[in-house]
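Sequence of Sporulation and spore germination protein (Sediminihabitans luteus).
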Amino acid sequence: MSRRPGPGRAARLAAAATSVVAAFALAACTQIPTSGPVIDGEASPEPVSQLYYNPNPPRDDATPVQIVEGFQAALQGAPTGTFDVAKSFLTGDAESWSPYTSVYVTTGDAGLDVDETTLDSGRTTVTGKITVVGTIDSSGVYTEESPGSTLDLSYTLTQDDAGRWRISQLEDGLLIPTTDFDNSFQRSVLYFATSDRAQFVPDERWFPRNVTWSTSAVKALLAGPATWMQDSVLNVAPPGTTLVGSVPVDDGVAAVDLSSSVTDAAPEDRALLQAQIEATLVNSYPRTQEPIRSVALTSAGAALVIPDVGTPRFASTDATPVAVSDGALMSLDGSTLSAIEGAPPLAGFDPTGIAVDGDLVGEPADASVYLRDGTDRILRLAGDGRAELLRADDVATPSVDRFGWAWTGQGDGTVTVFGADGTARPVDVPWLAARSVTSIDVSAEGARAVVVSSGPGGVEVNVAGIVRDADDVPVALSEPVEIGPALVSAREARWAGDTDVAVLGEQPKDGDETVRVFPVGGPSVTLAVVAGSRSIAAANGLATLLVVDASGGLSGRSGSGTVWRPVADGVTIVTYQR
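Predicted 3D structure, token representation.
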């Protein structure tokens, strides 16, 4: 189980690399093309201009610290091109340095220092310490670090016969400042399929933004999903299936040649594999490169026969908000609250959370409302009556998945799902033992769940894969990955897009709870504070975020999705139909 890094994690991080250094001297010139022809063409995406760098090679008279600074400056932008200039700072064993074994996303100055007592010997060490905000492993998985995490740095340098200092020893790895991260690495979403092959499941990765991007993405897809997702998605590539060569792109077509093992795949699996590769490349390619519109799948150069069968679709949530106002269920259209004719009455209840299964606004007779009554009861309200599903201490607001199962957690760490007939099924989640569940939400495609819990070690926000049986009944949650490592409190977490999770919580020194967006596998974003925030809802993207404050004010994102705007008053709860 992946836990919050904390001081122990920071200490291990500080010792993880003893010879990687950072000092972001402006030794490289950044240039933007300012001329070129205007070309008429089709109305299709065209590559956009990208920053490119012209780094300086090492000077013969540079000091050890200047050599290290120059090396790090030469790394800026190198992922988009080559490391040729950076490698000119290296000598001896250091020439075998591999940059992508691990990537550290950093901020601030390294505070470089040289051991002056050894300069006359022709061999010395430059050391420092840098703040790390995130790491990327060799498979492209991004992990956000706790605030204050640092990395101890050390370079060994030697002097050649001409008196020139060069780096002779450093560990594998790359340091990228946050200011250069988006220009150097491409957010890339690998797509796998749900167990029923109906919908895609996203797996966010980060790869260098260069001509090898498509090759990196296909190799990662063939290697399979992130560990925590392995029992929740299909991986149809037969064992031993690998990419042969690279993935060239010509006139919008990506040519993907696979090893002969792929011919062992059943016809429907070949179709699914092509759909996965195409969804990954078409939707994630760097906009600085030629657009990818389709994929040609071959093995040993021969086209694979791909049957015309159904393939997964991209999941989405019904973006129709439902609110509780004046003790009744209301629809929200823009800023107008309207009573829903035919909706179940809430009289006699203390609504503290709701989930809607079906089109309550359009077809209320066929929809179900799952209600948290106070903090100790879950009920199902529908056209066929009402039923108490659970009475227990500290139950979490329900969440409904696309198969119609209603989820909730309890103060004792148990997780339970309920069928439409009221049947209760326990979900096996060993890692929640001795913890209290305060929030649970299932993603639109039904393969992932985000859980907020408290217990030993404080609050945690974890994302886990949902394991289902042959009848799509949830039976377990996988070992999770933690997001939001810096939070000292968290009230709720809601899926807000394919990989984004919106969390209402607090970081040290905040003084107020606010909404933070934690991509599962990407850097987080903090949104402006809505004073007195009490609950949140989200559907498809950050523009759908809604926040209810303590006074009943409902705020939503602006049309551009960049700022909060008032929407309505007198709201106690808001959610989206599922």
